[in-house]
Amino acid sequence: MMVGASGGPGTKDPERYSAQNFDLGGLVQVAFGINRYQLSAPAWLNDVRFDVEVKVPAGATAEQFRLMMQDLLQERFKMATHH
Questions:
Q1: Does residue 38 lie in a domain region?
Q2: Alpha-carbon dihedral of residues 6, 68, 36, 17, nearest 10 degrees?
């Protein structure tokens, strides 16, 4: 199975973000702009996989996109974060 993501602010397709067969840990990395080693989470986060298609508003910045992804994770996955 293919794994990958494309689109979003700063790419040739800034108004669409697509992730196929992406693990939840990868989505968290995108949403918070972090590296894998910076994520402290249960191991199953890397086992659960999803396909995500997101429409990004025209002119959205990378920071605004990350905040939208954080909202998506909080609303759809009931994710809570602690800094």
A1: yes
A2: -10
Domain extent, residue 71, equals 4-77
What is the pLDDT at residue 40? 87
Q: Torsion over CA of 29, 73, 7 and 33, rounded to 10 degrees?
A: -30
Q: Is residue 83 a part of any domain in this protein? A: no
Distance CA 74, CA 59 (A): 23
Asked whether residue 47 is assigned to any structural domain, the reply reads: yes
Question: CA-CA-CA-CA torsion for 60, 63, 65, 70, nearest 10 degrees?
Answer: -150
- Tally the domains of the chain: 1
Q: Is residue 82 part of a domain?
A: no
Q: For 43-74, what is each residue's pLDDT tens digit?
A: 998 899 999 999 999 999 999 999 999 999 99
d(CA 21, CA 48): 9
Tell me the two tokens of residue 58: 């025209």
